[in-house]
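Reminder to self: tokens first, then the designed residues, so the page reads top to bottom the way the pipeline ran.
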């Protein structure tokens, strides 16, 4: 039986067929992405609006986490103080500092972004 291919004397090897099919499928996905990427500005604006809408909730969550950390720290420091351990001041400063850090970060982020 004769090969009816004009340009090639032998049929394509399997690896070449796999490469050609992969490139064709990749082209289809690329065309789809280009079609959907035309409205990128609207998508970026929508993402910005969603982040801004969650910002107040996030800062409230940081305040709540700071309160919980403060309560846990107060209990731990109280237990150390009652046990008479010598490093109570260091532990109290560390817990107090972490609570202040969370509150300051939430406040600075809120004022920095002007929300």
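Designed residues (115 positions):
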């Amino acid at each position: 039986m004769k090969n009816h291919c004009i340009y090639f004397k032998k049929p394509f090897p399997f690896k070449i067929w796999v490469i050609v099919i992969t490139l064709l499928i990749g082209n289809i996905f690329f065309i789809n992405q280009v079609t959907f990427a035309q409205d990128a500005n609207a998508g970026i604006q929508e993402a910005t609006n969603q982040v801004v809408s969650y910002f107040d909730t996030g800062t409230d969550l940081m305040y709540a986490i700071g309160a919980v950390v403060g309560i846990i720290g107060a209990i731990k420091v109280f237990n150390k103080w009652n046990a008479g351990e010598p490093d109570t001041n260091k532990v109290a400063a560390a817990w107090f500092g972490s609570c202040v850090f969370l509150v300051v970060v939430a406040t600075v982020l809120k004022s920095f972004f002007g929300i």
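Residues 49-115 form one domain.
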